[in-house]
Design brief:
Keywords: Hydrolase. This is DNA mismatch repair protein MutT. One of its GO terms (molecular function) is hydrolase activity. This protein is an alpha+beta fold. It has a single domain, classed as Nucleoside Triphosphate Pyrophosphohydrolase, CATH 3.90.79. 19% of the residues lie in helices and 35% in strands. The chain contains 2 helices and 9 strands; from the N terminus they run ββββαβββββα. The strands form 3 sheets. The protein has a 4-stranded mixed beta sheet, sandwiched between helices. A hairpin with a 2-residue loop joins strand 2 and strand 3.
């Protein structure tokens, strides 16, 4: 079983933006699951508007990488695939009703995110983007 997700990578000052959904105790790189036949960018724009109340500029999106991992809390044999993009945005970043809180994480916060997000953290650290 493949759980196909898209994530927005926003790095400022060597820290990456993460969000904790309401009712959960784990932080994630913002984004979510594709609906129907949505493209990666359509999914990304919709999810980020829903979660962080800002509008991404699709023409500025750059694919950073795609990661796959299993993890706790997933059905047996389930794999999460996360396609990661950077993109510029308009508006003021603010958690929506479905997000409990946002935080800016450094590499030291890696244990607080799921395994697939940890792979992204490793690459961002290796490239010098994540403090």
């Amino acid at each position: 079983m493949l759980i196909d997700t898209v994530a927005w990578v926003r790095i400022e000052g060597g820290r990456i933006l993460c969000a904790r959904p309401r009712g959960k105790d784990v932080f994630y790189v913002p984004g979510g699951k594709r609906e129907g036949t949505e493209s990666d960018l359509e999914t990304l724009v919709r999810e980020i508007e829903e979660e962080l109340t800002v509008h991404l500029a699709p023409d500025t999106a750059v694919h950073l990488g795609t990661y796959e991992a299993t993890g706790p809390g997933l059905p047996d044999g389930a794999v999460v695939r996360m396609s990661c993009y950077t993109a510029e945005y308009r508006g003021t970043l603010a958690p929506s009703s479905e997000i409990e809180e946002t935080a800016w994480f450094s590499y030291a916060d890696r244990p607080l995110v799921p395994p697939v997000d940890q792979l992204l953290f490793d690459d961002l650290r290796a490239s010098g983007e994540l403090a």
